[in-house]
Structures are given as structure tokens and as C-alpha cells.
Amino acid sequence: MKYIMTGLGMFVMVFTCLVASSAWQGFVLTKVWGWFVVPSFGLTTLSIPVAIGLVCTMRLLTGLYNQATVFDKDDSKEDTFGKAIGVMFIAPLILLVIAWVATWFV
Predict the structure, then answer these.
(1) In the chain, where does DSSP find H-type helix?
(2) Of 87, 30, 85, 47, whose CA–CA distance to 64 is shortest?
(3) How many Cβ atoms from other residues are within 10 Å of residue 53's Cβ?
(4) CA 91 vs CA 18, 25, 64, 94: distances in Å
(5) Measuring CA to CA, which residue among 56, 64, 61, 60 is closest to residue 103?
(6) What is the tens place of the pLDDT at every residue in 26-81?
(7) Which backbone phi and psi does 10 adopt, to 5 degrees?
(8) What backbone phi and psi angles, to 5 degrees, belong to 72?
(9) Under 8 Å between Cβ of 102 and 53
């Protein structure tokens, strides 16, 4: 039971961090866009939900993780497999859900 709760706690923590970082990066993107892109190119400002969607898109296009920090050579095969599954399937699913929720506000 201890390992289940530890795993569940880790999942909740990672999920919360992904949501919070997406929101933060969306906010930062709206500010930077407004400071540089709008005056330079005459484009419209971005809303935070649109910026969150762009952040999710950029994460998918540029990579979700840094392999050097995710995979450790001392990890067991099970740990490496679990991390790979998380990177390949779980992280993109979470980003998809975050972007989908952001579309409700666009």
C-alpha cells in the first residue's frame, strides 16, 4: 500500500506541475508576445488560453523532456520502461487534456 500511495502522490505531483507550468508558460508567452511581437509585426495580442495551447504545441514539436534528466544509467529496466511509457504516452496525453481545456476559453 505504501508504494501505491507513493506512486499516486508522485503522479499527482507531476500532473500538478505540468498544469502549473503550462499556465505559467502561457502567461509568460502572452506578456512576451505583447511586448515584442505585437508592436514589431502588428499582430493581435494572445489570450492566456491560446498561449497555453501554443505552449503545448511547442512542447510537442520541440520535445517534452531532456533525455539526460529523465533517464538515469543506474535505473533498473523496470524504472526505465516506466519512464519511457510516461514520456511516450502519459505526458502527451496530459498536454492534450490541458490544451483541450484551454480551448474552452478561446
Answers:
(1) 2-32, 38-41, 48-62, 67-70, 77-85, 91-103
(2) 87
(3) 23
(4) 9, 16, 8, 5
(5) 56
(6) 898 999 999 999 999 999 999 999 999 998 888 888 876 555 456 667 777 777 77
(7) -65, -40
(8) -110, 135
(9) yes
- Structural domain spans, the chain: 2-103
- The DSSP secondary-structure symbol of 43 reads P
Q: C-alpha cell of 3?
A: 508504494
Place of cell 543506474: 74
Do you know the residue count of the chain? 106
- Cβ burial, residue 27 (10 Å; 0-12/13-18/19+): middle
Cell 498536454 locates to 95
Give kind and range of the element (H or E) at residue 71.
none
